[in-house]
Specification:
Number of strands: 13
Strand order of the largest sheet: 1-2-5-4-3
Number of helices: 14
Strand content: 15-25%
Distance between the termini: 37 Å
Radius of gyration: 23 Å
Largest sheet: 5 strands, mixed
Shape: elongated
Order of helices and strands: HHEEHEEEHHHHEHEHEEEHEHEHHEH
Helix content: 25-40%
Length: 380
């Protein structure tokens, strides 16, 4: 909250702030805090779908080892936080309550949670305050001296009596500003994830993108799900191909018939491969490499693992679409994919992904699809 006077605080809090007139309770770091955030993040993404551009854990509860008020600070980025009809009704339906509205300060909104005590801060895409909050979090996670300085200051201030809790938060501004002079955002690489059904044209588009960027002297590391699945021996696969059913397919990857039709089942070994793949991508981005990923988010567990390991890396998700009949024909032409694999994936893979760009390779030729991708990434 930007306001510091009683009048500003009272004007921003819907219905008026609760008078505290007491000291501030700080709890020792609790291992449950990240789990509480993860549960809320899942609920937020389920409520907003693609409208939740990013959901980040911020504040003191996001820093291991740091004492904090036991309130989970969440930073939600939407397209335009001033456009309340685009997200407020959906969040309210999920149990969140709009508590603070600050149109003069980054169009900031704050919601309280339905059960866990949370402060969900809502900002627009590209807001500098989001970068500042995450930079402060990342610095405290890495810098022991500043983390200890911050905790000492918090404890000293928490022992005083405050009319409003916001007064305590505002009193930390001086030490926060001091620490921020030493905080440097790591120079991570850029991450682009192309997600679409099998045979949607992702690999061809990703390869064309890498070639186009190489022509202007920019290196991009291209990695994809096929790189991972090629490590899965045929004994761990049952996808209806000529090789037949692998004896260990239950631990790998297989099609299964169920009451709602055929589904793709990911077993224990394949799941571990996916987890290694996701963490390899994250490590490459953290090392400073630009990475473009050619992926198929095959189920909800895969999506949630991506979200977990890419936290703080600001991925750009790109939906690659094509009509089912187009994918079917491509599968026939390829001969190395079971016919209908794309149809099996169609209803699952785009669920809950916060796309920034969407491209239909069934209606665009390769050159036009590449142009759309470059424009969507502000590279053209």
């Amino acid at each position: 909250m930007a306001g510091s006077s009683d009048e500003e605080i009272e004007g921003a809090v819907i219905g008026g702030p609760r008078v505290h007139n007491d000291t501030i309770h700080l709890a020792d770091c609790d291992e449950a805090w990240p789990e509480w955030f993860a549960r809320e993040a899942t609920r937020i993404r389920a409520a907003l779908g693609h409208g939740a551009l990013s959901v980040e854990h911020a504040g003191s509860t996001s820093v291991p080892g740091l004492a904090a008020k036991p309130i989970i600070d969440i930073v939600l980025t939407v397209a335009d936080s001033s456009d309340e009809p685009a997200y407020v009704p959906a969040l309210e339906a999920a149990g969140y309550v709009l508590q603070i509205r600050e149109p003069e300060w980054f169009e900031h909104r704050v919601f309280k949670g339905p059960d866990v005590n949370v402060n969900m801060h809502v900002f627009s895409r590209g807001c500098s305050e989001v970068d500042r909050m995450l930079m402060f979090r990342d610095h405290l996670r890495e810098n022991d001296a500043d983390r200890e300085l911050y905790e000492r200051t918090k404890r000293e201030l928490a022992g005083r009596r405050w009319k409003y809790v916001q007064h305590y938060a505002n009193a930390k501004s001086e030490v926060v500003a001091e620490i921020m002079t030493r905080a440097v955002r790591p120079r991570y690489g850029r991450l682009v994830v192309l997600n679409g059904v099998s045979s949607a044209g992702k690999t061809t588009l990703a390869s064309a993108f890498r070639k186009a960027r190489a022509a202007v002297g920019e290196f991009w590391f291209l990695v994809g799900i096929d790189d991972v699945l090629s490590k899965l021996p045929e004994q761990w696969v049952d996808l209806g191909l000529a090789g037949g059913e692998g004896p260990h397919a239950n631990d790998g990857m297989r099609f299964e018939a169920g009451p709602n039709g055929v589904t793709l089942r990911v077993g224990t070994v394949c799941r571990r491969l996916f987890e290694v793949y996701h963490r390899t991508v994250a490590a490459a981005v953290r090392s400073g490499l630009n990475v473009i990923v050619d992926d198929v988010v095959v189920d909800d567990a895969t999506r949630e693992d991506w979200f977990h390991v890419l936290d703080g890396l600001d991925p750009t998700w790109v939906a690659i679409h094509c009509a089912p009949e187009v994918a079917d024909q491509r599968e026939r032409d390829r001969g190395d994919r079971p016919i209908g694999m794309a149809r099996v994936q169609q209803d699952v893979i785009h669920r809950g992904i916060p796309y920034a760009v969407e491209i239909d390779t069934g209606t665009l030729n390769l050159d036009d699809a590449l142009t759309a991708l470059l424009h969507g990434l502000a590279l053209a």
